[in-house]
Specification:
Pfam families: ABC_tran (PF00005). GO terms for molecular function: ATP binding; ATP hydrolysis activity. InterPro entries: AAA+_ATPase, ABC_transporter-like_ATP-bd, ABC_transporter-like_CS, P-loop_NTPase. By secondary structure, the protein is an alpha/beta fold. The chain has a single domain, classed as Rossmann fold (3-Layer(aba) Sandwich), CATH 3.40.50.300. Helices cover 31% and strands 25% of the residues. It has a six-stranded mixed β-sheet, with helices on both faces. Strands 4-3-6-7 form a four-stranded antiparallel β-sheet, with helices on one face. The relative contact order is 0.18. Bound molecules: adenosine-5'-triphosphate (ATP).
Length: 324
């Protein structure tokens, strides 16, 4: 058992943070499970979102199907995520948004269909990959921090558990990662001593912590997946998290060039219900309904789109094809 695992608790379930398998307590697994929704032309949607439609496809889902018991959740979902994109996954509650995120992250296997990571079909789960070609960071809705560990130990968890780096180096990386999310100096606090927004930022620091200290140009690119990162936050705290997602993103339109900022978050995908997050932190949207992608477009197109399902969702009307 690793350096931190003993202290993190013994009721364990597999979960990932930042692309490596780690272990979380059953309560946290439950919380992350609870944290849980084309007609449009994909190429046009990518182009109008300002994304280079020739950019490398980092993740592709092809006709993915997933059922839990008799309940069909995904029924042939297909889409691509390109390098540099900030993509939102939206749709009504229970339409499979978190499921699709977990499938992309390699935490869950589809029943049918393919998950292709940078041109290579993924076989099994992320934990089965011997030679990963993409680093995946996951920020769960619950933040999924270990209550019994300090914030610093949480952020450095995968390095303490899965690397041979000396403690002082890990502490330096923790400090760097916390500074990136505006949380300098909270290493020794416990999660219970943080606000909800701070917990989400700590979870983000854990997802983006550097694993390679060699300044290696070949270091794996990272895609971060956020499950409802602003749920439960006040409007200002939401803005802080939304801007943080943008700032950590190398594909940020304001960055001089991708090459210039290489090493950060190449693309991110966010499941959200929050209008502010759709407006502020996302360029392109994927709308899931009845297990399929029914619409893709930019955040601006979302406001004017005539597709009845999207219109009903955007206006919150009780009349329309979405039935509860
Ligand atoms: N591990 C599981 N076992 C059984 N059912 C599951 C499991 N995970 C998800 N489900 C079911 O699959 C459906 C889709 O869940 P999912 O969490 O992906 O939806 P969602 O769109 O993210 O919902 P919300 O917006 O409410 O968070 C739900 O009916 C849920 O109960």
């Amino acid at each position: 058992m690793g350096r931190m695992l003993r202290r993190a608790g013994r009721c364990v379930a597999h979960c990932t943070d930042g692309g490596r398998w780690s272990t979380v307590r059953r309560g946290e697994r439950k919380a992350s499970r609870i944290a849980r929704g084309a007609i449009g032309d994909l190429t046009e949607a990518v182009k109008s979102a300002g994304i280079d439609d020739q950019a490398e496809v980092l993740i592709e889902l092809k006709n993915v199907k997933k059922s839990f018991g008799k309940k069909v959740v995904l029924d042939g979902a297909s889409f691509k995520i390109r390098r540099g994109e900030a993509v939102g996954i939206i749709g009504s509650s229970g339409t499979g948004k978190s499921t699709v995120l977990r499938i992309m992250a390699g935490l869950l296997q589809p029943d049918e269909g393919e998950v292709i990571i940078r041109g290579r079909p993924r076989v099994g789960l992320l934990s089965d990959e011997k030679d990963p070609n993409l680093k995946v960071g996951m920020v769960f809705q619950s933040a999924a921090l270990f209550d019994s560990l300090t914030v610093g130990e949480n952020v450095g968890f995968k390095l303490y558990e899965h690397s041979d780096l000396p403690e002082d180096v890990i502490k330096g990386l923790i400090k760097e990662s916390l500074a990136q999310v505006g949380l300098s100096g909270v290493e020794d606090r416990y999660p219970a001593q943080l606000s909800g927004g701070m917990k989400k930022r700590a979870a983000l620091a854990r997802a983006i912590i550097k694993e390679d200290i060699s300044d290696n140009d070949d270091a794996l690119e990272e895609v971060v997946m956020y499950d409802e990162p602003t749920a439960g936050l006040d409007p200002v705290a939401s803005t802080v998290v939304e801007d943080l997602m943008r700032n950590l993103h190398t594909g940020n339109k304001t960055a001089a060039s991708y090459e210039e900022k290489k090493g950060g978050v190449a693309s991110y995908i966010v499941v959200t219900h929050q209008h502010s997050t759709i407006r502020r932190a996302v360029d392109r949207l994927i709308f899931l309904h009845a297990g399929k992608v029914v619409w893709e477009g930019t955040s601006e197109e979302f406001d004017t789109c005539e597709e009845p399902i999207v219109r009903q969702f955007a206006t919150g009307s009780l009349q329309g094809p979405i039935v509860y």
